[in-house]
Design a protein that fits this description.
Alpha-Beta Plaits; Rossmann fold; 2 domains; seven-stranded mixed β-sheet; about 35% helix; globular
C-alpha cells in the first residue's frame, strides 16, 4: 500500500494544530509534528480523490507544502524509530510508550503500543485529553466501544483503569493490525475484540460507554448509531474537534437523547462527555 506524505510548513505549534483540524475533514490517517513542519499521511487513492479540495484550502491559508509518495513499510520503520514516550498528567497519571522505552514507576498506568502509522500515539492533544478523561471516569467492570481505535491506546487505557472488555473498531486494516499488536504488548489482548470496518461492525450491541476520537463530521454522522449502542445512563467521550465546533457536536448528541455533562479544553481542542438520558 502506498501513501502520500504531505509536508506543510507551519509557523508554530498553534498553526500546526489548526492545519490538522482543517485536514481532519479528509481521510488522513496520521500526522507527525516537527519544528516548523507538519507531515500528514493519506493513501494515494484518497489523495487523488480529494486533492482538488485540499490543495486550494492550504493555498488559501497561505501555506507552503509538497507531496511525496512513500511506501508503507518505509514509513512504518521511520515512525517506530522516532516515537517518543508520552506522559499524561492527572490524578491517575498515564505513560504511553513503545516496547523499547523504560516502564514507568509503580502507580502510573502503563500503556504499551505499536506506534505505526495509526492515529493515537498520545502525542496529539486529543489523544491525551481522551486518555485523561477515561482515567477520571467510572469504567470499572464495564464494557466499552473504542470507535476509530487507531493503535488501540484508548481501549488499553480503559482496560488498565478497570473496564471489563472493549470492542475496538477501525476502518483501516493497518490500524487494526497496530491495535492487535498494541493490546498484546500491553497484556490486554484477551479483553479486546478488534474489528475492521465502520460503526456497523458494532451495530446491535449495547455498551456502557463509547470512546470516539474522530473528526466532527464523522461524529455527527455516527451520532444516531452511538445513541442506539449506549445503555440507558451510559456515556460517550468524544474528541477530534475544535472548541468552536463544540456546540454543533453537543446539539447533534442532544438530538438523539444524549446530554452534555462535562468537557475539557486544551490548545483549542475539546473532549466532551455526553450521557444518554
Amino acid at each position: 500500500m502506498k501513501y502520500i506524505e504531505l509536508n506543510i510548513s507551519v509557523a508554530d505549534a498553534e498553526q500546526s494544530e489548526i492545519v490538522m483540524a482543517l485536514l481532519s475533514d479528509y481521510p488522513f490517517e496520521a500526522f507527525d509534528e516537527a519544528e516548523g513542519e507538519l507531515r500528514a499521511y493519506i493513501q494515494v487513492a484518497d489523495w487523488c480523490q480529494n486533492r482538488q479540495w485540499i490543495e486550494p484550502m492550504l493555498l488559501e491559508q497561505g501555506l507552503k507544502f509538497g507531496a511525496l509518495e512513500i511506501e508503507q513499510q518505509n514509513w512504518n520503520a521511520e515512525w517506530e524509530s522516532g516515537f517518543e514516550a508520552v506522559d499524561v498528567e492527572g490524578e491517575r497519571p498515564i505513560r504511553i510508550r513503545a516496547e523499547h522505552h523504560e516502564a514507568p514507576q509503580e502507580g502510573i498506568i502503563d500503556v504499551v503500543i505499536a506506534p505505526r502509522m495509526s492515529f493515537g500515539t498520545g502525542h496529539h492533544t486529543t489523544t491525551a485529553l481522551m486518555s485523561k478523561t477515561i482515567a477520571e471516569s467510572d469504567v470499572q467492570g464495564k464494557k466499552g466501544l473504542d470507535m476509530g481505535c487507531g493503535t488501540g491506546v484508548l481501549a488499553i487505557v480503559a482496560l488498565k483503569c478497570g473496564a471489563k472488555s472493549m470492542v475496538a473498531v477501525d476502518i483501516d486494516d493497518w490500524a487494526c493490525d497496530s491495535c492487535r499488536d498494541s493490546i498484546a504488548l500491553s497484556g490486554v489482548a484477551e479483553a479486546v475484540d478488534v474489528r475492521c470496518g465502520s460503526i456497523d461492525m458494532a451495530r446491535g450491541e449495547q455498551f456502557d460507554f463509547i470512546l470516539a476520537n474522530i473528526n466532527r463530521n464523522i461524529l455527527q454522522m455516527m451520532m444516531a448509531d452511538f445513541a442506539d449502542s449506549l445503555q440507558s445512563g451510559g456515556w460517550i467521550a468524544m474528541s477530534g474537534f475544535l472548541e468552536e465546533d463544540a456546540q454543533a457536536v453537543a446539539d447533534a448528541a442532544a438530538q438523539y437523547g444524549m446530554e452534555r455533562v462535562r468537557e475539557q479544553e486544551r490548545d483549542g481542542w475539546i473532549v466532551m462527555v455526553c450521557k444518554k438520558l
